[in-house]
Inverse folding.
């Protein structure tokens, strides 16, 4: 499973750079070759810290808030309706939790994409996140999430 996730992260990175510069990277195979030639294996690991922390934050929020919203919505509905409409309550709890979880992911994902696609923007999350917040502030964060 770990190898699959690593390959998936590489593929997502390749797809991002192909979208950003389609003349340089003609496709996935071309993107892989050009990236390997220009940056070596080190190039494939750009943005791994924001990816790890971002998806960790998303997962923690998703599961934590799901339980919170499931209980809150069940309590609001009352025992009879909570039992009768259990599936809808679970769906609403899941959707609410996902909304918050995706907001938690956004700044990490924005920094990751900028590190991967804008040479010299930052080395990683430690210098990229403060730069992102300083440059874009709340309005930049709102734009990324929309």
């Amino acid at each position: 499973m770990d190898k699959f996730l690593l390959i998936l992260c590489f593929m997502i990175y390749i797809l991002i750079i192909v979208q950003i510069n389609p003349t340089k990277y003609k496709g996935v195979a071309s993107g892989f070759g050009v990236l390997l030639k220009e940056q070596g294996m080190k190039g494939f690991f750009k943005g791994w810290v924001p990816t790890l922390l971002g998806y960790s934050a998303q997962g923690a929020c998703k599961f934590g808030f799901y339980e919170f919203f499931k209980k809150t919505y069940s309590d609001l509905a009352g025992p009879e309706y909570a039992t009768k409409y259990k599936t809808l309550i679970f769906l609403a709890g899941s959707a609410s939790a996902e909304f918050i979880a995706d907001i938690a992911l956004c700044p990490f994902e924005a920094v990751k994409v900028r590190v991967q696609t804008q040479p010299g923007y930052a080395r990683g999350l430690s210098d990229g996140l403060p730069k992102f917040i300083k440059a874009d502030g709340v309005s930049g964060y709102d734009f990324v999430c929309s």
The chain has two domains: 1-45, 46-146. The CA atoms of residues 121 and 127 lie 9 Å apart.
